[in-house]
Structures are given as structure tokens and as C-alpha cells.
Amino acid sequence: MPLPALRTLVLAVCAVVALATCAPVGATDAESAGEKWIDVNLSEQWLTAYEGQWIIWSGPISSGRGEYATPTGTFYVQRKAWAEDMSGEWGTSEYYYQPEVPWVLYFTARGHAIHGVYWHSRFGTPTSHGCVGAPLNGASILYSWAPVGTPIVIHY
């Protein structure tokens, strides 16, 4: 299959998958207003993005582990980055370097973010240094959909 045709096919499949993940849910007062918000359930290792009563995307994540647990509470998307290099503290046993981490939604000043993960597929298991890692397809949907200021509720 020629590359342009393959690219068109991939985009069509992604659009169908994105539409298929939308489903109505029971609405609260805030949700009824059509507001966008993201729910991160650390116990289930699951993220759900809502717009009003509709689920925009829902899927497994990998959150922070051990002493690097993802913080809980209500946060807001502070800034977005299409791709950024990420690293841990140099000289420690937990140092890491990940170049070009895609579709980053920062929600704390300390660097916690929801972002795409290309270096592992262990979603459903806490593995990170505090961020919320999502599969690439989900992270790209979230990045395109969530503006700065979108609420993120993180809980167990």
C-alpha cells in the first residue's frame, strides 16, 4: 500500500476509534454545563476525559510509583507542550532521560503532567516518577481536546 493511502487509512481508523469511545454517562451539575474535565483514578490506573455527559476518551494509564506517587487533588492544565525532553535529577539512582515525550499537559509547577508514553506498554501499573502516562492514541486525543485551564481530578 502506498504511504499516502496508508496514512489516510490510519487517520480514518483513528477517527472511528475516537468516535466509538464517546458515550453518555450520568451527569452531575458541573458536567451538565458541558464543561471539560479529566478524571484520573489511581486505584484503577484509569483516565476518563469528559465533556458534559460525554466520555471523550477513556483508557489505562501508568501513574507514579512508590515515593514518586502521583499527587492527588484537583489540578488544572497549566501549560501544554507538543513534545518535550524529560529527565530526573542527575546523579541519583532514579535518573532517567526521555527525549521528545509527546502530547504533554502539565498540571503542577513541579513538572507533573499527563503525557504520551512510547517507551513501555505497562499501562495499568504504576511505573512513573509522578506523571500520568497514557497510550499514544489517548494522549494525542487529550492534547488536542483539553485547553489550558481544564480541570484534572486525581484520586484513589
What does this structure look like?
- By secondary structure, the chain is α+β, with helices and mostly antiparallel strands.
- The protein has a single domain (about 5-155), classed as L,D-transpeptidase catalytic domain-like.
- About 20% of the residues lie in helices and about 35% in strands.
- The protein has helices spanning about 5-20, 30, 135-145, and strands at about 25, 35-40, 45-50, 55-60, 75, 80-85, 95-105, 115, 130-135, 150-155.
- A 6-stranded mixed β-sheet has the order 1-4-3-2-10-5. Strands 6-7-8-9 form a 4-stranded mixed β-sheet.
- Strand 2 and strand 3 (about 45-50) form a beta hairpin.
- The chain is globular.
Approximate helicity band = 10-25%
SSE order, as H and E? HEHEEEEEEEEHE
CATH architecture: Beta Barrel
CA-atom Rg in angstroms: 16 Å
Q: How many domains comprise the coordinates? A: 1
GO cellular component, one term: extracellular region
InterPro entries: LD-transpeptidase, LD_TPept_cat_dom, Transpep_catalytic_dom
Keywords: Cell shape, Cell wall biogenesis/degradation, Peptidoglycan synthesis, Signal, Transferase
Domain L,D-TPase catalytic: 36-155
Briefly, what is this?
The protein is an alpha+beta fold and 156 residues long.
Furnish the topology, listing elements before pairings:
Layout: H1 3-20, E1 23-24, H2 29-32, E2 36-41, E3 46-51, E4 54-60, E5 73-76, E6 79-87, E7 97-106, E8 113-116, E9 132-134, H3 136-145, E10 151-155
Parallel strand pairs: 2-10, 8-9
Antiparallel strand pairs: 1-4, 2-3, 3-4, 5-10, 6-7, 7-8
GO biological process, one term: regulation of cell shape
Organism: uncultured Thermomicrobiales bacterium
InterPro entries: LD-transpeptidase (IPR050979), LD_TPept_cat_dom (IPR005490), Transpep_catalytic_dom (IPR038063)
